[in-house]
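User: What would this chain look like folded?
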Amino acid sequence: MADPKSADRGSGGLDVDVLAAELAETWRTNQRINVFLLEHIPDEALADTLSKRGGRDVARQFAHLHSVRVWHLEKRARDLAEGLEAFPTKVSPSREELIEALEASAAAVEELLLGQLRGTPRRRGFKRGVFTTLAYFVSHESHHRGSILLTLKQCGHRLDNATSYKIWDWDRI
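Assistant: Here's the prediction, encoded as structure tokens.
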């Protein structure tokens, strides 16, 4: 894949290899943020929840990210979902299970996105295109990261400022 920093952007044309590299790097950055956040949450805080009625704890919110990826892959690129399983709704997976699952589903979503960009058969994204598909996944996961941070704060497990700020430093994470 081409390095986006070395592309000749003055030529007026779009280089699919450059777009693919930037698309993949954006998705990978989103995934690195998920894993970084998960790695910096204290073990006891994975069970934190604001729900009084059995809603998702922090671990289940991360599980939900993976499960939504799997559900979209089953619908949009069935072969990429092979070997991936959504977590049962009421299960709070361990940190290690979450990281392993998130890494596997992130790789499959990346293949979906790149396949959609390149016109690979059986790689169906949102009707408005690959960047809308990417935006959906990143927006959904960002929403849940915000919910996780709020849950941690409200339950007395606020993350230190360096960790909280790092998830916004996309150029360095």
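Residues 61 and 147 are 8 Å apart (CA to CA). If you want, I can go into more detail on any region.
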